[in-house]
Amino acid sequence: MLQKILFNDKEAKNHIENDEYADAAKILLRHQRLDWKMLVDGYESLGTQKSKQFDFNGFKIKVQFNPGRIYSTVAKVDAESINNRKCFLCTENRPEEQKAIQYKKNNVIICNPFPILPEHFTIPHINHIPQLIKAAFGTMLTLSKDLSRYYNVFYNGPKCGASAPDHFHFQSGTKNFFPIENELGFLKNEFGTTLAEETGFNVTGIDDGLRKFILIEGKKESDVQFGFDKFYRVYKMISKENEEPMMNIVSIYKEKKGWRIILFMRSKHRPSFYFKEGDEKILLSPASADLSGICVTPREEDFEKITQDDIVHIFREVSLGKEEFEFIKSGLERRLNE
Ligand SMILES: [Zn+2]
After folding, report:
1. Do 178 and 152 meet the contact criterion of CB atoms below 8 Å apart?
2. How far does residue 79's CA lie from ligand 1's centre (Å)?
3. 62-87: per-residue pLDDT in tens?
4. Which of 57, 70, 174, 298 has the most C-beta neighbours closer than 10 Å?
């Protein structure tokens, strides 16, 4: 079964043999855009749609009208709906045209037919196992390093953005497309509290008025993993979720700087606007991309009417509360420095 869906291209294979997964993925996308109709339509829809931008003193949030994302935005992720549908990330259910690149032992890289970024991939586990980051964080670090020539890697928790919470997957897409990537230095200086500071390893708590997140910067993989483990443990203490504390993660890797990990903490999956009726309704279901500054509205009416105040309201509502954030910052600072 797996052989049939593997991307069989000589140039890509050469790259894979040299661990140049970013180049292999780029070739995969180029080929898939030639002959996979669903993907061609997805990119065409992305390229022709409108976007607008809101400026917040020193950082920005863009809004993208993207009708192709409707299925993901309104995805039903309750246990019953999940049990009653065929999993679209399992090998046997994926469209035959969707080719895959094997990534190490346990993952494959496939093209996302409903892109948000100019180049957008999904990286599912080869087995149908639940979306839980704890044991997979190390893979996220390696993967983001291996894709870093062109792409970042991101993760949406099972209760805050993943449209397949039952099948483990990362996503990956074009570097420097999420506004937050180039604003991290500013956000850190302006809104950050230092929690750990060593040569080549920094942890900062950031609240910019919209989002609350922990930023881990590290040159050594073991340091970044250490920082994440401590963060996870502290966050778990106040989380009401059985599975894992709600989070969206973006991993950025640069050869000289190492990793920058953005850990957005959440209190809620979808904002109250999402559930309203008629004129008051705004279909926006925030996940990594939205929190990183690319808000996706699949309905044109929402794109047109959404205001800067709505964005503030939505982001504050789905982000972690102030008290919990203070608890995490102080608990994390203590554990990082003991
Ligand atoms: Zn599956």
Report:
1. yes
2. 14
3. 999 998 888 777 878 888 888 888 99
4. 298
| Ligand 1 centroid distance, CA of 158 (Å) | 13
Q: Which of 142, 104, 114 is nearest to 251 (CA)?
A: 142
Tokens linked to 91: 């090998």
Give one DSSP letter per residue of 131-171, joined into a string: ---GGGHHHHHHHHHHTTTTEEEEEE-TTTT-S-TTS-EEE
Which among 325, 228, 319 is positioned nearest to 266, based on CA atoms?
A: 319
CA distance 304 to 281: 12
Is the Cβ–Cβ distance between 61 and 51 less than 8 Å?
no
User: What's the 174 CA to ligand 1 centre distance in angstroms?
Assistant: 25
Would you tell me how many other CB atoms lie within 10 Å of the CB of residue 210?
18
**CA 95 distance to own-chain centroid:** 23
CA–CA separation, 10 and 127 (whole Å): 26
For residue 129, how far is its CA from the centre of ligand 1 (angstroms)?
7
Q: How far apart are CA 233 and CA 230, in angstroms?
A: 5
128 C-alpha to center of ligand 1: Å? 4
Q: How far is the CA of 45 from the centre of ligand 1 (A)?
A: 26
Between the CA of 167 and the centroid of ligand 1 the distance, in Å, is 5
Spacing, Cα 215 to ligand 1 middle (Å): 31
The token duo for 10 is: 């000589």
Closest CA to 291 of 152, 133, 179: 179
Beta-carbon contacts of residue 264 (< 8 Å; ≥ 6 apart): 211, 212, 213, 247, 248, 249, 250, 288, 291, 319
Q: What is the pLDDT of residues 287-319, one digit of tens each?
A: 999 999 999 999 999 999 999 999 999 999 999
108 alpha carbon – ligand 1 mean position (Å): 13
Rounded Cα gap, residues 311 and 189, in angstroms: 23
